[in-house]
Amino acid sequence: MLFGFPIVQIVLFGFALTNEIKNANIIVVDNAKDQASLQLIDKMEGTKFFHVQKTLLTPSQIDAAFKEGKAKLAVVFPANFYNDLLHLNKASIQVIADASDPNTAVTLTNYVTSIVNDYQAQLSPTASMPYTIVPEVRMLYNPDLKGAPNFVPGVMAMVLLLVCVMMTSVSIVREKEMGTMEILLVSPVKPLLVIIAKALPYLALSIVNLAVILILSVYALDVPIKGSILLLVAESILLIITALALGLLISTITSSQQSAMFASMLGMMLPTMLLSGYLFPIENMPVVLQVISNIVPARWYYVIVKAVMLKGLGFGAVWKETLILTGMAVGFTALSLRNFKIRLE
Q: Strand (E) positions, 112-266?
């Protein structure tokens, strides 16, 4: 711990985790297809910041691409872009960003503005009336760029996971340390019922926690729930069940409350904070960390909450993430039951 933990932190924060946005998926709608628009698109493609998808979409299709998570930014060139630049010395482009993550939206729009400014400076560096390209920026889902809509989903995932995993991880271990496990071993109660009985109190407490978080988010932080509140609650309960199952699994494979608490803290806090997409964009991470992030329940719940709470989407937009969380819950429960049965034998 003394030597390994500092090395891991330095590598993660210094190399793998960064707030710099790279390889962000953006849509370029080129209605002009002229010299100026093609040159600007080439400059965007030549940077490490963007992964450009050139296409021709209607405004409704652009909005659908944002809701499906296929793009974080769209750049729209008007049909008369180069003509306006030549004859009026001024032209505009539309920059549309997904502001459900305001930090990413501001960073990406700044990248586009910087590229545009550099291009227009190259067009007429000595002209008395230089060409001017004006990016018209539009922020979707969070036009005021408030911070609360970004951190509330992350805090929800972190609080629900940590409380559930830590509390349940010590439940069965406590029975061993107190010497009451023998009573359970000789009782006619089935292992599955023991596991359910250990999880139910924390399920009830976590639902109360969820209600408090949602009330504070809506009335204190002014974060609206744009989608179905029933869907949001159902998805949150699914995360709670997944976390309870994971906590019980930790409880069945550890031998003391201290080791169970340590495993739950180390195994959930750091991955939830660092690999869920809450603090650092996942697409910026090395491939190894991107693969590891797939087994972090908070990653999928974070996507679900942003889609339902901020974008107002329904179950059709989050069914894949829901299926993944359901699979995790079933898998953790099955492993917990298997380990408990082994101890019964």
A: 132-140
